[in-house]
Hints:
Shape: globular
CATH class: Mainly Beta
Oligomer: single chain
CATH architecture: Beta Barrel
Distance between the termini: 22 Å
Largest sheet: 16 strands, antiparallel
Amino acid sequence: MKKGNLLLLLTILAFPLYGQLDSLKLNKKGKRKPTFYPLPALSYTPETQLTLGAALVSYFDLYKPETDTRLSNIQVLAVYTTAKQILLDTKWFLYTKNEDFIFFGRAFYHKYPDRHYGYGNTTLDLVNYFEPNNASSETFNYLAFNTQRVHFSPVFLRKIYKRLYGGIQFEYEQLFDFKLIDQRPAFIDPDILSVPVTGARTGLGFNITFDNRDINLNPLNGHYLQLQNWFFSEKLGGDYQYSVFRFDGRSYINTLKDQTIALQLIVDQRYSPDGRQGIPFRGLARFGGADLVKGYFYGTYQAQKMTMFQMEYRWPIYYFKKPFPFKKLPIIKGFGLVGFLGGGQVFDQWSEFGFNRFRLAMGGGFRINIDREQRLNIGADFGYGFDKNSDFRKHQTGIYFFLGETF
């Protein structure tokens, strides 16, 4: 986001309305009692204007717990803005008895603003369109637009050996109702619209995952290694035909008590027989946003291939020994800090890869803990992008409010 547009972000996510009893207590069926956290949310950005919404996260057992079975969880988010934008989003992570099966995924409907920065590892250069002193503060190096978007991506995994799983995954997404927002699209390079935006993409593929993390939302230790593949095809009901191979590796190192070094590496490769024209805007390899290198808008850099890394140091500073702020409603369990560094690059051919081509970003934030056992935090982070031309002669920055951790 632009520094000049860096918004007033107001949130009351730190105050859950209600939390049930300690999830380690068992009910009559021998299951740990489920825990619910309804969370109201309020924010403001120039893109969305005033945002009103609510989130819910719940931990629960599908079966009577075993010693090696983690708690399942579901997150639900519903948001409406005064700009008449809508976001309905749900994520789930379900463990069966003894973790013989794992089901996770995401489903959402978005009616939200988006940005198209063009194609490649550099943002659109508008210097050629303006005299040196003829560009105003309202000049953008991206095309702003609205779409409606429907997404559904479930994953079904079966235990192969101990913490190693294999299975299938499906993804369906459709973008429609494309409307430009930018007041001066004539200044945008015509090539920026050569990548198709709307249409449906439907893909099916395999998933191989090794996961020995102690808790999936905020691990203290363990590893997560995932190899994913999708074949998107017109035969599956989509409008595009291309393939995706993606590796996601994460490692968590417990340094001192409750402190963690979190590391992540992603390698993403996409191929279409029609080149870039065969892969839609939302199907390209890209990074940025709250999950993939905070500090850049998601999709500032996009192409057919992407590599990305990020690292975080998570430091819970203090846990309250007594209920806070109310004896009968201990809604805040503690506070913490996080520092992070990340970077990514996109390209079409592996010969273009270079260690000097990473778009770096760094930042930090604070955490409010609302469940010490599951290490469930509410976070607020500030990210700063190092690329001085990522936002038309300026650095990009971002403020992020979220539930849980980045990865």
